[in-house]
């Protein structure tokens, strides 16, 4: 009996430590960044797979049964690269240089290494190495182009992150969210990744819907940074409509109106506010300019 009570007491202590920001989950910086911990969505059960920002955006874009993104979507490629930069920023690995007395605009400021320790995610660590090796530093806009392979400079082509969608889909297969199939398209076979964990997809869609409806916060500075990034980058990747299409006409109108409010913000002003994450706002600016 004493042993059981001691075990419960230790668990309670560990829970209090995590709630206080110390212990296994690690500290959380004043700017809201969390260096080593992926987002843990507490809306589902405790065994729910933890998804990166890139994986969430890809999931919104993947057709549940077909297992691939729309052939007409030419935005998701660069959108996923933006997700990589925001993910590195929220984990405390990269930051935007200070604006200085001249108050340079977000897209003129350079990306700097804040902490070069690996994240444990192969895709993120590959991007982190590229940023670390580049001298002089480059802007967010440049990095989105480099990581996407959309640059005319042949010397920068080596920075391209290749097969991003396939690698993210493989991660989601390993996390039990997607599966792998082969489909024949007349002239060629294609590997597809249909959704197997429909509850995880539904939770993600509901999370997006709630963020602009029942849990709407009419102040971007008070919004969870990862949720805000998910909304903006899903919009930039042209996959947000997939989450909004099941809504009623009235809710759809409210949701799109609130997304429009976010896209019309003064991004430089938001980035200058206390406890903001300037690099996140710079990524938004690259897509919303």
What does the model show?
There is one protein chain. With 289 residues, the chain is mainly alpha-helical. It is globular. The termini are far apart. It contains 12 helices and 4 strands. Strand 3 (181-185) and strand 4 form a beta hairpin. The chain is 48% helix and 6% strand.
* Proportion of helical residues: 40-55%
In terms of DSSP E residues, the strand content is 5-15%
Mean of residue pLDDT values: 86
In which order are the strands of the major sheet placed? 1-2
Gyration radius, rounded: 20 Å
If classified by CATH, what would the architecture be? Orthogonal Bundle
For this structure, what is the CATH homologous superfamily? yeast vps74-n-term truncation variant domain like
- Shape descriptor: globular
Distance between the termini: 64 Å
CATH class annotation: Mainly Alpha
Biggest sheet character? 2 strands, antiparallel
In the CATH hierarchy, the third-tier topology is known as: yeast vps74-n-term truncation variant fold
The number of domains = 1
How many helical elements?
12
Low-confidence regions: 1-28, 37-48
SSE order, as H and E? HHHEEHHHEEHHHHHH
The counted number of beta strands is: 4
- Overall structural class, as computed from helix and strand content, comes to mainly alpha
